[in-house]
Amino acid sequence: MGAASIKGLVLMETVFPSPDGYTVFDDPQMKKQLVKELKKGTIKPPTASDELDIDEDLETKIDQMAREIWQFYDPKNLGSINKKAAEKFLKDCFQLYSLRKRCKAPKEALGP
Questions:
Q1: Residue 2: per-residue pLDDT
Q2: How confident is the model over 7-15, as a mean pLDDT?
Q3: Among 32, 59, 81, 87, which has the minimal tally of Cβ within 10 Å of its Cβ?
Q4: Annotated domain spans of the chain
C-alpha cells in the first residue's frame, strides 16, 4: 500500500470515524506504514486543533478533503476524470471500505 492509499485512509478516518472506535491503524502492519509516511512528510500528523476544527466545522473539513482527493484523480485540473481514473477511484473506495470492515479483500465486504 502506497502513500496515496495511506493518505486516503487517514482522510477517511478523519471525516468518518468508526462508531466502535476501531481504526485500520490498530493493525500493526498498517500502523508501521502510517509511521513511515509520517516520517517522510507525505502525511501531516494530526494536531489538537485539527480535532477541534472537525467538531466545529465538519463541512469545511469535508470540502477540503474532497478537493484534495479530486486533485489526486484529476491532476491536470480538467474538471472531469476519464474512465480509467474513475475505475481506479472506485477500486480504491472498495479497498478502503473493505479495510474498514476488517475484510481481507473488497469482494468479502460487498457480499454475494
A1: 66
A2: 78
A3: 59
A4: 3-110
- From residue 55, alpha-carbon distances to 15, 46, 51, 60, 99 in Å are 10, 14, 7, 11, 25
In 3D space, the residue among 14, 21, 2, 1 whose CA is nearest the CA of residue 66 turns out to be: 14
SS3 4: helix
Which helix (DSSP H) or strand (DSSP E) does residue 85 occupy? helix 83-100
The tens digit of pLDDT for each residue in 31-78 reads 898 888 888 887 777 665 555 455 567 778 788 888 888 888 888 888
Q: Is 109 exposed, middle or buried (0-12, 13-18, 19+ CB in 10 A)?
A: middle
What do you get for the CA distance between the two ends of the chain, in Å?
A: 26
pTM value?
A: 0.62
Q: What pLDDT digit, counting tens, does each position of 73-111 carry?
A: 888 888 888 999 888 888 888 888 888 777 877 777 776
Gap between the Cα atoms of 111 and 12, Å rounded: 21
CA distance 27 to 90: 24
